[in-house]
Write a structure and sequence with these properties.
With 384 residues, this protein is an alpha/beta fold. The chain is 38% helix and 14% strand. It folds into two domains: 238 residues, Aspartate Aminotransferase, domain 2; 133 residues, Aspartate Aminotransferase, domain 1 (Alpha-Beta Complex). The strands form two sheets. The protein has a seven-stranded mixed β-sheet, sandwiched between helices. β5, α7 and β6 form a beta-alpha-beta unit. The relative contact order is 0.13.
């Protein structure tokens, strides 16, 4: 754990910059070279080694935000997830995963782990009792995601981390939905933090990237595999991501402010039968979210009453984009059954509570009244 006494806006803006020693420019220069001098140098630089100047600088920003000793940046969230999991799991090992996780992660496990002879179990629920009952003698990793995608379930990070440490098990968390602005899992004892940096880190729906934050020892292990798998990010994209992360704190806080108000609006709508948002007092994990999060995030999921056609609603939106992915400054909505969790079977989706009627809402920075007007307009057109 490495604490930084600077404020988050300052860290986002200044930490992990590449200093322009030639011209004194106020932004990081881009080093796009794929070939670096190695004679009489302490380090052999190469993009696939994750150690070009821009890569190294950006990782300092990420580690400062996550309070970790070190970090790595990848070409996608799934590159970060797959490389990290395969780092800590070998043939004959077992991983215990939270039932409610991103569909791509679950598909990776179910589609690939058998061929590596890696045993896996998904918990029946999210409480500590379920995690304890799922442990085996060969369990090496516990994998969690909180808030979960797409139903915003909240897992007690500290309890899971403490239990795992007592059994010498590595804990890995997907912190994409919360971001380090809202939640810092390492401070609760988690070993490895993952991000789809495509989402809030990028924040403008134009960069694909992934990130890992952990101790230097764990990062060294991940790097040892990553350099062979080749999941690095191009330096131009690294530079764009560093630029985007300068506004991470103010973007997330603005989106979260909107989300809190919009969750209340949706919960009061006569056309909505259920809203999933940890900031609502009727959320089953509201008090836990209040304890371990600095706010409640900018993701909402909801279901309409039977009178509303969800597909027609999505196609009737004008301002809000019915679009893949999430976390851009623009508000978007989608059907998880048709996108993020499409690779799961219908039974798997339904067992997690992901119905065909469920809509996931990534709240942007637009004016709240304009978002509400667009929702109400679409509802009128979607009445059966």
């Amino acid at each position: 754990m490495k604490k930084n006494n600077k404020g988050e806006n300052t860290i986002c803006t200044h930490e992990g910059e590449v200093v322009d020693t030639q011209f004194g420019g106020s932004v990081s220069p881009i080093f796009v070279s794929t070939s670096y001098e190695y004679i009489n140098k302490d380090i052999s630089r190469y993009p696939r080694y994750f150690n070009t100047p821009n890569q190294e600088a950006l990782c300092k920003k990420i580690s400062a935000l996550e309070c970790s000793e070190s970090a790595m940046i990848f070409g996608s969230g799934m590159a970060a997830i797959s490389t990290t999991l395969l780092t800590f799991l070998s043939s004959g090992d077992h991983i215990l995963l939270q039932k409610d996780i991103y569909g791509g992660t679950r598909n990776l496990v179910e589609a690939q782990f058998d061929r590596f002879n890696i045993d896996y179990t998904f918990t029946d629920d999210i409480d500590l009792k379920c995690f304890k009952s799922g442990i085996k003698k060969n369990t090496k990793v516990i994998y969690i995601e909180t808030p979960s995608n797409p139903l915003l379930k909240i897992i007690d990070i500290e309890k899971i981390a403490q239990f795992a440490k007592s059994r010498d098990i590595i804990t890995i968390i997907d912190n994409t939905f919360a971001t380090p602005i809202i939640q810092k899992p390492i401070l609760f004892g988690v070993d490895v933090v993952l991000h789809s940096a495509t989402k809030y880190f990028g924040g403008h729906s134009d960069i694909s990237a992934g990130a890992v934050a952990a101790s230097q020892t764990h990062i060294d292990k991940i790097w040892n595999l990553a350099k062979n798998l080749g999941g690095n990010l191009s330096d131009y994209s690294v530079w764009l991501l560093e630029r985007s992360m300068k506004t991470l704190s103010i973007r997330v806080k603005a989106q979260q402010k909107n989300a809190k108000k919009l969750a209340k609006y949706l919960s009061e709508s006569r056309y909505v039968k259920k809203v999933y948002y940890p900031g609502l007092k009727n959320h089953p994990n509201h008090n836990l979210a209040k304890k371990q999060m600095k706010g409640y995030g900018a993701m909402i999921s909801f279901e309409f009453i039977d009178k509303i056609d969800p597909s027609l609603f999505l196609t009737s939106l004008n301002l809000i984009k019915p679009s893949m992915s999430l976390a851009g400054v623009e508000s978007t909505m989608l059907s998880p059954a048709e996108t993020s969790h499409y690779l799961l079977t219908e039974n798997e989706r339904l067992s997690q509570g992901i119905t065909n009627e469920l809509i996931r809402f990534s709240v942007g920075i637009e004016n709240k009244k304009d978002i509400i007007m667009d929702i109400e307009h679409a509802i009128k057109l979607a009445i059966k």
